[in-house]
């Protein structure tokens, strides 16, 4: 089996793992056995904001396969996927205007499927295709499980959104190995093909895309959607999260970037932003100094007067900027500019 050669730079929530735990428990196995080799404990599954690495997630899935011996574990788990288990995000989807709007939000925040999938919608005349692209490189057995889960979970999610099953026209699984189609046809109640030249996808009548959702509520949807970016920031790799904070700081130079302003731009509270920065091993002040230093170097090379640079970076006076720059670089702004010329 092919194995991953590089670490996967993403994090996973425990929503999916709690689903796995419930299924394994029905087979008579304990949570401790499921979590063996992961450094996690049963209480972690009840921590709504805890994140785990993909390596831990893969170990749990290997344990689940070994314990349950389920032939189609991904299909079993996907059928049990319910939006209510995903808290605010699930109810944000439910309150969307129609299926199309819900799917657009789902593409941006594919929380129920995890962060290893990229979803896209293709509409050709009267047919809609939901394509699923797995972005990770893992051993074939787990990759197959993930694909099974993604397709059945999508089917379950859309049934929750519509309050009725979405009739499917066809399923294609773009994988090198073609198993027996019969079990998949029973799960999906439609023709299933295994064509490596086409994307993994499910198709349906495109008219369903504009079908109003029973729980549509514009006011509630707008309020809850503001929290979705916070959920997304939880799932981003620390590298991506810090890049977004740095970008927000740089965009705020015109108005003197502050912790409060940057937090607002990222749709979270100042305390939440500080907590995530601590988890990433840094602080807002450190990132602000980094951004100011980088920007200062650029402006010095453009021959901008020191007083204007100080003002543009939010310093109260030029002297304060000179002291900060010397602390960052070991030389004064004028020395830096002189050395750069030579």
Task: Give the helices and strands, then pairings.
Layout: E1 11-13, H1 15-26, H2 31-34, E2 51-53, H3 54-68, H4 73-79, H5 87-94, H6 99-108, E3 117-124, E4 127-134, H7 140-162, E5 168-172, H8 182-188, E6 192-193, E7 200-205, H9 218-225, H10 228-235, H11 238-251, H12 259-265, H13 270-279, H14 284-301, H15 306-312, H16 318-329, H17 333-341
Parallel strand pairs: 5-6
Antiparallel strand pairs: 1-2, 3-4, 4-7, 5-7
Helix pairs in contact: 1-3, 4-7, 5-9, 11-14, 12-13, 15-16
Keywords: DNA-binding, Transcription, Transcription regulation
InterPro entries: AraC-type_N, Homeodomain-like_sf, HTH_AraC, Tscrpt_reg_AraC-type_HTH
Protein name: Transcriptional regulator
Task: Summarize the structure in words.
By secondary structure, this protein is α+β, with helices and mostly antiparallel strands. The protein folds into two domains: 11-210, H-NOX domain, CATH 3.90.1520; 237-341, Homeodomain-like (Arc Repressor Mutant, subunit A). Helices cover 52% and strands 10% of the residues. It has helices at residues 15-26, 31-34, 54-68, 73-79, 87-94, 99-108, 140-162, 182-188, 218-225, 228-235, 238-251, 259-265, 270-279, 284-301, 306-312, 318-329, 333-341, and strands at residues 11-13, 51-53, 117-124, 127-134, 168-172, 192-193, 200-205. It has a five-stranded mixed sheet with strand order 3-4-7-5-6. A two-stranded antiparallel ribbon has the order 1-2. It is elongated. GO terms for molecular function: DNA-binding transcription factor activity; transcription cis-regulatory region binding. Residues 243-339 form the HTH araC/xylS-type domain. It holds the Pfam family Arabinose_bd.
